[in-house]
Amino acid sequence: xxxxxxxxxxRIHGLAAIAVALLLTGCATTQNPQDPLEGYNRAVFRFxxxxxxxxxxxxxxxxxxxxxxxxxxxxxxxxxxxxDAWSAVNNLxxxxxxxxxxxxxxxxxxxxxxxxxxxxxxSEAGIQKHNEDFGQTLxxxxxxxxxxxxxxxxxxSTVRDTAALPADIGADIWKxxxxxxxxxxxxxxxxxxxxxxxxxxxxxxxxxxxxRYEFIRDGYMQRRQSxxxxxxxxxxxxxxxxxxxxxxxxxxxxxxxxxxSAEPTK
Length: 266
Fold this sequence. Notes:
Layout: H1 8-26, H2 38-66, H3 69-93, H4 97-112, H5 121-124, H6 134-140, E1 148-151, E2 155-158, H7 159-170, H8 180-197, H9 199-208, H10 212-228
Helix pairs in contact: 1-2, 2-8, 3-4, 3-8, 6-7, 6-10
């Protein structure tokens, strides 16, 4: 699973080519205003599902069955600690100073007393973990989510979240790890560990959902809106939630000062 860093651009171009090809063959308008590219999105979903069943799921299953649970927890904690740094930046950009400083404290505590983040000492001490990215920050700034978009390999997204990806990728601390072979090995382990954590949920989804694509799409859109508002999605004048408004892709500008201090963790 190793890939040399200079091939990153090539991989991105390859994904873009796949996306264009699928768009030309599968694009179709639908009655769902949040998913005007459903034909294309379903084609990408099928491609992702094929890749997952052939490579990711078997690898993740073997990893979960063979790797001791404490090692899996350490891997998850380590990369979670790295993501806390970017979460802190986004919390501060959203005007949530207390949450941002909490994330800074988490990184400091876990990087030292937690042995470079392998142990989540901060959570044990009651310092809450947040999961903020630049897509959420754009949502807080009033940028509408735009239509749903299924990305090759990367999975569900929106136009706004896709536009935010370069910032999220560029802010990934592990991206700058040296030597390069350690970075590539770590990146592969990170993906496998993440997929392993979703195995049970994925199996439940396969058993329960009549249309897995619709279930994932609707769940993602509602979850992202909830994340932007920290779970406090505003209600319309008629008493309905914004999440229930099928005719609107936009998310009104959130008020950082009015957000709850607590935020659901992933």
